[in-house]
Amino acid sequence: MGNIIVHISGMTCGSCEKILEDSLNVYGVKKVRASYEKSALRIKFDENKISKEEIFSIISKNGYTPNDKKTKKSKVYLSIALGLGFLLFGAYILIKNTMGFDFFPDLTQKTSLLLLFFLGLLTGFHCISMCGGFVISYAAKAKSKVRAHLEYGVGKTVGYALVGGLFGLFGSFIAFTPQIRGYAAIIAGLFLIIFGLNMLNIFPWLRKIIIKPPKFLNKYTVSAHKSKNPLKIGLLNSLLIACGPLQAMYIYAAATGDFFQGALSLAVFGLGTLPALLSFGVVASMISAGSTKKILKVSA
Hints:
This protein is about 65% helix and about 10% strand. The chain is built from eleven helices and four strands. Strand 2 and strand 3 form a beta hairpin.
């Protein structure tokens, strides 16, 4: 028997644990335990039936990078992110004070849809890393790629809207004052920041601050990972609540306190994620795996 610890690059959320464990449910592997917090796999296997190289190959085929040693932390991306953040904030203050123009509208039900769509556009680059494999999978088997992408887009948007509506309905039972709505928006923003830092893997301890999906939802995650039906994949994507940006949007949807507004908010956000993700599906054959990982860093 062999016992190894494999360090993994490319784990973006808690759902990656289930995907990796399920993919290694093969002949010769006796036990596997994945940890998103540690970005590692602990594997017990029969060396006479499967080799470490074959295990590494299975992991790579699922879009992750296996390593014998921990990857060195790079603070370059964090420095770039902080620099851009200060630069944008400084530009915002300068424009607001000199021109009196505030291009950040209030986060209310009537004025936030454009912001949510824009946030969806930015999140679309993150979707490439999490859902790009789904898009490539169904596109490879589809007779009409245009129709397949359309079905996926419809499924994802409808799924987001339904779940967003449910969160909005849940929020209707809570007395959300304008102040509490503001706090909810701030918490949603903090979730996005924490998720971005986790993608950069600069502060590993931050990976403990996540909301893991209920275990009964894990089977849907794996089902989406294996399915070739674009409409089904799109619908199941709305259940990937381990996704940081989605967690933030669900908090926002709950703060609307209304089924329709929650559904509309998530539908607009979902539509915003589609351009980058579907464009990736169209040009996937021209993009290397290394390029995809760089896109992941940019989205972080």
